[in-house]
Design a protein that fits this description.
The protein is of the alpha+beta class. It contains 25 helices and 18 strands.
Length: about 700
Amino acid sequence: MGNDHVAYLKDNTHLFARNVVQSIEDMVGCSFELSEESYCEKAFTPAYGMTVSIHFAGKVQGDYVVVMSEQTAAAAIDAYEDGMELDDLKPMREDYAGFIKECLNLSVGESIPALEASFGEITFSPPVVVFGEIEYPSVTNGVIMLYHEVKGAIQCAFSVNMANNKIGQRLDESLADLERKTAEAQAANRNIETMLRLLPNGLISIDSQSTVLPGYSEATARVVGNVNQVVQGEKVADVLGVSGAIREDVVSWVDLVFDKFDMLPFKDLVDLCPINEFSNDLGRILAISWFPVESEDRRMLERLFLVVEDVTHQRELEARAAELRLTHEENLELISQVMNLEPDEVTSFVYDSSSLLADARKVVEGDSHDRQFVTELFRTFHTLKSSSGQFNFKGLQSLAHHIESHLKAIGEAGEDTLTDHDVEELEHSISNAADYIDRLQQMQLKLGGRDETLVEKAERNQATVMVNLSKINELENLLGNYQLVARSHLDRYQLAQLGEIEQGVKSLRMINLNFFKSSLESLAQNSAEKLGKRVKLSINRDTEVDVSKLRMVHKTLVHMVNNAIDHGIESPEVRKAAGKFEEGFIVVNAMRESSTITVTIEDDGMGIDTELVRTKLVEKHGKTDEEVQQMSDSVVHSHLFISGFSTKDEVTMLSGRGVGMDYVYDTVVEKLKGKIDVSTVKGKGTKISIIFQD
């Protein structure tokens, strides 16, 4: 992959540079020369003051970039005269920036097909122009120069990230290998029947009606658990030992695959299959691997191959190993906590927990099993969960949480009394909790404890590990597939357990806004220093948000913090004259109400000059005086988020180009499907709220 990456980088950099040369010549008749010897591969740093880039994405993603001085850009459209300074050029930025953006659009349009030929459909974003310094991502780019003896130099750069293509490439390699082996088998005139007889796993193919076609391994019937079974001509669900609701799901899934094969990636279709791994009616746990066979013209799906593997013994061993591992981890946890806690803390916890369990047992063994019974037990186990968490007894805390969830499910069922099965489940759970307390007490007797200072306690911290987000996604997908299978095999209690596990996996994706506190504080301090201002940023309220969405929110906050400092917060002198503290305040809050997340950023600056916004809409955005005067303030403020809008006449290091708040709108409204509210009081400050669903 490394050599392929280098080849694509070099070839596409040269192709892009040649297209830039041709586009400029076609548009204005000016011929730049491509300097072959200037090509290099490095982390990209813009060499001049004007950067124009287009981002593309698909199986691969990356950027096309051109960089030049503003003098060169103006000269390209014959708008530059000798002796012009940068301030003289600024009024013409819209003209020469528009020219370069159009040139880049044409060049990328000519360059993209080369990528699509290798990686499939590619989409690319509109061009973005940045004047001044810019910090570019630390990735390797192909960089090459264009020169013109009069107009100056242009720096062209191309970056491509092929990480997203690895999975597809592996699949392509596997399919290519399968095709090669098939060709070799045909060329050598091998005996296919012998091969099928020798295969240790089940191998069958099916048509769009879920019927098993001729040509299958003799091991198929043995693998699924029925050696006398007829295979050819039977329905695949019958062969695999699938019945009930799952059988109907399998038929529906096969119909979906044959119907949508040319519309959806096959991997995504396989993820929807209810029997990728399942327990069949004959007591076997089967793992299924699916392979599509297309027609010769590749316009339709001809058949589906499935490899069937009996993983019953393997899963039993894994379950036993997991059981032993859990017991071992719980014992280590108990040893660690008993050694780290003071003896009286352990004794007190054992006494209190035993009393709670004794009360719970009395309630369960009593004659009344009505809704009040559920309420009392729920309160008891909620207390047990809280106290377990306080002392970091994770096993007992998890068990109490599980019982809590079971009781919640019982309460939501709406029944007046509990079933005998519910009572048995609760008695079993209480016994498990009591066993945990007994083990804890025995561990204390064997190991004792040690005294610990307050400083030592404060320094103790729970261990954490970094988990790749893709691993969590894989686990979520596995749980989703398992849930499809579990519907007809698990009872309500077990399904509730499965739901709790799913929620636990989802919680692994959740992080707090405070995760970004340090970076936002540094951002505010650095931005304020550049503008000669003083700012204090704080996060007063916080909540957990899905990491992928919070990353997007964080990016919008970067723009909004900069905007608040540049547009809102006044200089220390102005603030002091207005009776304010010299240091401005920016407060970020994150709040959750059910599945709705509200993130606010509020400053105590000068507020939005609504009339100035109206004026800019007339001057630069084609509105009439009558139109803007009829607009409500909220409608006027919504224009702050349109592309290219700015109330500043000059561009600063932080704002003035009208792109930051446009990014905020695109992220919140288009990507997060949320909304933005703006409230402001002139002279007092501004509050912007972004609201979206978690």
